[in-house]
Design a protein that fits this description.
binds 1,3-dihydroxyacetonephosphate, globular, TIM Barrel, 8-stranded parallel beta barrel, alpha/beta, about 250 residues
């Protein structure tokens, strides 16, 4: 399985900042990305076209969106459709990022709808899951991850559109943007649990589905994290905003 190194820029970067960051990244990484690694950049909507133009035709680089609304078109003020993203060269999209779930109130049902719809439209979907600190302290990690996985993946629509590509991202909410990385044993346990659930839910593709870790990934902890069983990539927030640190992660 190849390794996916994803940069989630969240609500950062004007077009000119995006352009200079991606040029710097290309300078540092072009020609040196190992054959089994893919670098995925997830800029805000406004910089998708800029990044798309810069990485077009570059080996090992892909483009994705942080979110979309699951409808073809219509009176949905402020929203963007999968068709619009595909038109810009996006191959990937996230669903269920914890910031969407917690700041914007996205329910398991809406996340499931986005996941199924994105797959049906041909996007490789990355489903993000993760427990809060309270849930972890209450010993409810298994319950929460299992609920999030089942509600998004236990669906005929998902099973029949899987060829578009599916990856998972385990992002414990308490490790996002806090500098606090989950302990290797916690990551190993959560990823093993996700793999086990995938084998039940999607037996044909479970072992081919990448499971990324996200939450305070930095250049100095990347290789340790990537060495943990069932970790097939990383989803990076803060440390993806500077070409120096993200290229070190990409090669780490
Ligand atoms: P940080 O790397 O800033 O903790 O963010 C992780 C994340 O949310 C990636 O999607």
């Amino acid at each position: 399985m190849h390794t996916l190194i994803a940069a989630n820029w969240k609500m950062h970067m004007t077009r000119s900042q995006a352009s200079s960051t991606v040029q710097e990244l290309l300078q540092k990484l072009e020609g040196s990305i190992p054959a089994n690694r893919e670098i995925l950049i997830l800029p805000p909507f406004t910089s998708l076209e800029t990044v798309s133009g810069a990485i077009s035709g570059k080996n090992g680089f892909s483009l994705g969106a942080q979110d979309f609304y699951p409808a073809e078109e219509g009176a949905y003020t402020g929203e963007v459709s999968p068709e619009m993203l595909l038109d810009l060269g996006c191959g990937y999209a996230l669903a269920g990022h914890s910031e969407r779930r917690h700041f914007f109130g996205e329910s398991d049902d809406l996340v499931g709808e986005k996941l199924a719809y994105g797959l049906e439209k041909g996007l490789h979907m990355i489903l993000c899951i993760g427990e809060t600190l309270t849930e972890r302290n209450q010993g409810r990690v298994r319950e929460v991850l299992t609920r999030q996985l089942h509600s998004a993946l236990d669906s005929e629509r998902v099973r029949s559109a899987l060829r578009s590509g599916l990856s998972l991202a385990y992002e414990p909410v308490w490790a996002i943007g806090t500098g606090e990385v989950a302990r290797p044993e916690d990551i190993e346990e959560a990823h093993a649990l996700v793999r086990e659930e995938l084998r039940t839910l999607l037996p044909q593709s479970a072992d081919r589905t990448a499971i990324l870790y996200g939450g305070s990934v930095k250049p100095d902890n990347t290789s340790q994290i990537l060495g943990i069983d069932n970790v097939n990539g990383v989803l990076v927030g803060g440390a993806s905003l500077k070409a120096d640190s993200f290229s070190a992660i990409a090669l780490g």
